[in-house]
């Protein structure tokens, strides 16, 4: 009975920003448990590379180009995917950008708008578009990728725009969960610590920065994409059937201190 709850056979899962990094690992985790995977990424080459990696492992997947900041495109994409698959059971709103390292008082309009457009608006456009279909179909599971940065102010890098955008994702998650809970659609989020991906590559060569990160982390290490993917899989599966509106911290203990 318990193993069955983790299976995703016959379900279709959409993962935004799924061409690489945490998103690709999430796609792989969901595929391993039986889901059909649809990855959507802004860059064709990245989307195709992610698809090739999934196919190499024998998984059923397809890749699409999507910019999550364009609400009409997101809606058209959701219509297309639902028409092709009949139903979308799982959405992982993972696409996000960092652009980290500028003090609040020096933050350019463009940086604030861009980061919030992808990290916050984009998550809402995707939740709204796929949420509508899930409500109509009578159920679904949405997992949004927030960040521990939504709970704390990172240091030493300055990134108020990023931190605020991720806190907004957590609140959006609980608001949508409250609205949709009695109609079968669960909405949860995961808040990762620093994970080794392209996004954190800017820290390479800046040992001072990494030292501060590791010193401030009770486990004294960064995370790997698969360590987030398995938490997302749990939230996307029936194993978490009583959970909605929660932001699960997968942060190596960072927010304990
Ligand atoms: P990556 O940069 O490796 O992957 C993010 C993917 O999203 C990229 O392929 C990127 O494409 C794509 N993307 C960016 N903008 C858009 C858009 N407008 N529409 C569709 N796709 C887009 O980052 P991670 O895997 O590290 O990050 C995944 C998520 O995890 C993000 O939401 C991030 O904020 C969050 N996170 C990451 C942490 C970390 O330490 N890595 C920690 C906490 C949270 P392109 O590069 O071409 O723009």
Topology of this protein?
Layout: H1 2-5, E1 12-16, H2 21-32, E2 36-41, H3 44-56, E3 61-65, H4 71-85, E4 90-93, H5 109-137, E5 140-145, H6 160-180, E6 185-192, H7 207-215, H8 225-236, E7 247-250
Parallel strand pairs: 1-2, 1-4, 2-3, 4-5, 5-6, 6-7
Helix pairs in contact: 2-8, 4-5, 5-6
The structure holds NADPH dihydro-nicotinamide-adenine-dinucleotide phosphate.
Residues 16-17, 19-23, 41-43, 46, 66-69, 94-97, 118, 122, 145, 147, 192, 194-195, 197-200 line the site of NADPH dihydro-nicotinamide-adenine-dinucleotide phosphate.
- Counting helices, strands and paired strands, the structural category is alpha/beta
Strand order of the largest sheet: 3-2-1-4-5-6-7
What ligands does this structure carry? Answer: NADPH dihydro-nicotinamide-adenine-dinucleotide phosphate
- What is the CATH topology? Rossmann fold
Overall number of domains: 1
Tell me the series of helices and strands, N- to C-terminal.
HEHEHEHEHEHEHHE
Beta-strand content bin: 5-15%
Q: What CATH architecture label applies?
A: 3-Layer(aba) Sandwich
The CATH homologous superfamily corresponds to NAD(P)-binding Rossmann-like Domain
* Helix content percent band: 40-55%
**Total beta strands:** 7
Mass-distribution shape: globular
- CATH classification, class level: Alpha Beta
Radius of gyration: 17 Å
Main sheet attributes: strand count, strand direction, barrel closure = 7 strands, parallel
Summed up, the helix count is 8
Distance between the termini: 38 Å
Mean pLDDT: 97
Poorly predicted runs: none
